[in-house]
Design brief:
With 539 residues, the chain is an alpha/beta fold. It is 37% helix and 21% strand. The protein has an eight-stranded parallel barrel, surrounded by eight helices. Strands 13-14-15 form a three-stranded antiparallel beta sheet, with helices on one face. A three-stranded antiparallel beta sheet has the order 16-17-18. β17 and β18 form a beta hairpin. The radius of gyration is 27 Å and the shape is globular.
């Protein structure tokens, strides 16, 4: 039996950015969009062009996605303005993207109190805006705001809005549970009724999580006929969040009632990266992952000793509804954590590092990794530091140079005009081929100064680092108090567009930054095939 196609639409970069405490940078948006594209999603909504400087900058230089259609979000034209005379709509339509998602009001009460217009005019707003999108050569989607509340109040009007969008050329008409108050049985009933009027292969679902039912509502809508599902990574979003794609995706791909009937753009290999992508988002937000998150949490496949532990040892299916490896997670059995070795071998293979599963050096590597993770290191989003640690354990990493000592000075003073200025200087003493080299850097902060000094004078290696650029720097406090342990994550980029992340942990933020900076440089030298150095101790 031929399976039907389901289309997955991620709104993390727009809906997720409305979460309390979330504020993505342009670099965050690029990294997340590329990660979502990598697992095989069909659409990635990048934000609202013109709504704020970050989104405007993101769409001015958008990432080049291989699979997903980058989508711009906006509103239909405003009442009293034509399509050509609505600056907000024009900015969205001008975005150089393959798809545009417009939100239109489909609840007659909101048309009255928010738009201050008639239902007849509200339908025209939708039809003309969608038609203008299609005329620009964009794939058009309409998010029907408050659709379920509107349908309960006035089904004829909401259906008229949906019909108008479809007739104007909309690829998808998305039914939104905007306040998250609709329950699964209501969603399924209403979607079935709507599907009698709008073909299911043009219907989508967008569920908020205010009753903790967004995932259930999304799956109920699929059962009832929609073929397009919207959500966010880890369910982030305003108020209580959105439908969690990290739970929806594996359910669709691994549960027979869905995977026997439907297919998506996510391949088994893409699914194996789901845990990594979920944790990448948490690292970008400087927050701890939810260990109890379904499928991807550290505790999702954790089993204590005793009855559960012995049962899992005999047959993991006893207490695991799916194999953890299918979603990139791993099993934790405290009495015998053999899955750790297999997981590390798989991860090394993904990094291009071939090693036998019975290599005795893996034992030390796994022990070192667990010890570092206990201290606060996180390697899910610091792939370069993980690779370097593995290469050192396997004796495959040359020693290029050694940093004998470094010093950072921060000075806060008054100028002759009475203004307060803060300056930072750093001095680094490195040993290259037995020669001690001293370099000094000046920056707008201590880490910037240390970065400048660290790679300013490295002898024969300086040429390899000429295009190295630090593009993102994040700090997370792991313990409380003035002596808190700090984790620093640094993202680097070279002139060919390669990006990598490194991590450092220390009670001293400068020392943690140095560790991450040092790894970033060493990783660059290794990728470039730089020759090994002859390192001797500094005099």
């Amino acid at each position: 039996m031929k399976r039907e196609r389901l289309y997955l639409f991620d709104t993390t970069l727009r809906d997720g950015n409305q979460s309390q405490g979330v504020d993505f940078s342009v670099e965050d948006k690029r990294a997340i969009a590329e990660a979502l594209d990598g697992i095989g999603l069909d659409y990635v909504e990048g934000g609202w062009p013109g709504a704020n400087p970050t989104d405007t900058a993101f769409f001015a230089d958008p990432p080049k996605l291989r699979h997903a259609k980058l989508t711009a979000f906006g509103m239909t034209r405003r009442p009293g303005r034509s399509v050509s005379n609505d600056p907000g709509l024009k900015t969205v339509l001008d975005a150089e993207v393959p798809a545009t998602c417009l939100v239109g009001k489909t609840w007659d009460w909101h048309v009255d109190i928010a738009l201050g217009t008639t239902t007849t005019e509200a339908v025209k707003l939708i039809a003309e805006s969608v038609a203008a999108t299609v005329a620009r050569g964009r794939e058009a989607l309409l998010d029907c705001e408050h659709f379920f509340d509107g349908y309960k109040a006035n089904p004829a009007f909401t259906l008229e809005c949906a019909h108008a969008a479809l007739a104007a050329g909309a690829r998808w008409v998305v039914l939104c549970d905007t306040n998250g108050g609709t329950l699964p049985h209501e969603v399924e009933r209403i979607v079935r009724e709507v599907a009698k009027h709008i073909p299911g292969d043009h219907l989508g679902i967008h569920a908020q999580n205010d009753t903790d039912n967004a995932v259930a509502n999304s799956l109920a809508a699929v059962h009832a006929g929609v073929r397009h599902v919207q959500g966010t990574l880890n369910g982030i979003g305003e108020r209580c969040g959105n439908a969690n794609l990290v739970s929806i995706i594996p359910t669709l791909l691994l549960k027979p009632e869905f995977c026997d009937r439907f297919e998506t753009g996510v391949s088994p290999d893409g699914l194996r990266h789901l845990t990594h992508v979920s944790r990448l988002l948490d690292e970008r937000l400087n927050r701890a992952p939810n260990i109890h998150a379904p499928y991807v949490g550290d505790a999702a496949f954790a089993h204590k000793g005793g009855l559960h532990g012995s049962a899992v040892a005999k047959d993991p299916r006893t207490y695991e509804h799916v194999a953890p490896e299918t979603v990139g997670n791993r099993r934790h059995v405290l009495v015998s954590d053999q899955a750790g070795r297999a997981n590390v071998v798989m991860r090394l293979k993904e990094a291009g590092i071939e090693v036998s599963g019975d290599d005795p050096r893996l034992t030390k590597l796994i022990a070192d990794m667990k010890e570092r993770e206990h201290l606060g290191y996180a390697f899910d989003d610091a792939e370069a530091s993980f690779e370097l640690m593995a290469l050192r354990a396997l004796d495959r990493l040359p020693e290029y140079f050694r940093v004998a000592t470094f010093r950072v000075i921060v000075e806060r003073r008054y100028t002759v005009r009475g203004e307060v200025v803060t300056t930072s200087d750093a001095m680094v003493k490195s040993v290259v081929d037995g020669e001690t080299l001293v370099s000094v850097g000046e920056g707008n902060g201590p880490v910037n100064a240390l970065d400048q000094a660290l790679r300013k004078e490295l002898g024969k290696y300086s040429a390899y680092l000429s295009d190295l650029e630090l593009v993102d720097y994040k700090v997370r406090i792991l313990t409380q108090g003035t002596g808190a342990v700090t984790r620093v994550m640094i993202e680097s980029r070279d002139g060919r567009g390669h990006r990598w992340s490194t991590v450092g942990v220390s009670p001293n933020i400068i020392d943690a930054s140095f560790q991450a900076l040092f790894d970033a440089i060493v990783y660059k030298l290794f990728r470039e095939g730089a020759p090994a150095g002859v390192v001797k101790a500094a005099e």
